[in-house]
């Protein structure tokens, strides 16, 4: 005969095993102790509408990566309850990422062009510009080869 603690342990172990067997799109997502609040037009009394001050020394890139990771986690957690909305949010997030990537590439391209595009650029500036373009082009080729 199994005791209540063994039953709980067996159920927990079985849930973990089921989660570990789930190697598809979803990662292991911890189950909250209480149900998640539903979305409402007004914030809950305990929520603040103002962002908390941060004293982080994270770089903007690290902060953006952490934000993306958090958003992906939310999308994956939502999948169980609303797969279509989860897919739509995933598509929107990828679209935002593509737009940010294109903006970053254009900014780098503009910076490279500004370094030599004047009438007074000497041979050394042009040589350096060509080297920078070669490096930048190589990075773009490496990136596109990865996707």
Notable characteristics:
147 residues; single chain; mainly alpha; 64% helix; disordered N terminus
Mind sketching the topology for me?
Elements: H1 4-21, H2 60-79, H3 83-114, H4 123-146
Helix pairs in contact: 2-3, 3-4
Textual characterization of the structure:
This protein has 147 residues and is an all-alpha fold. The chain has 4 helices and no strands. The longest helix has 32 residues, at 83-114.
Largest sheet: none
Give the overall shape.
elongated
Straight-line distance between termini: 55 Å
CA radius of gyration: 25 Å
Secondary-structure element series: HHHH
> What is the chains' assembly state?
single chain
Number of helices: 4
Structural class: mainly alpha
Beta-strand content estimate: under 5%
Portion in helices: 55-70%
On the 0-100 scale, what is the average pLDDT? 74
Low-confidence stretches: 2-49
Strand runs, count: 0
What is shown here, in short?
By secondary structure, the protein is mainly alpha-helical. The chain is built from 4 helices and no strands. Helices cover 64% and strands 0% of the residues.
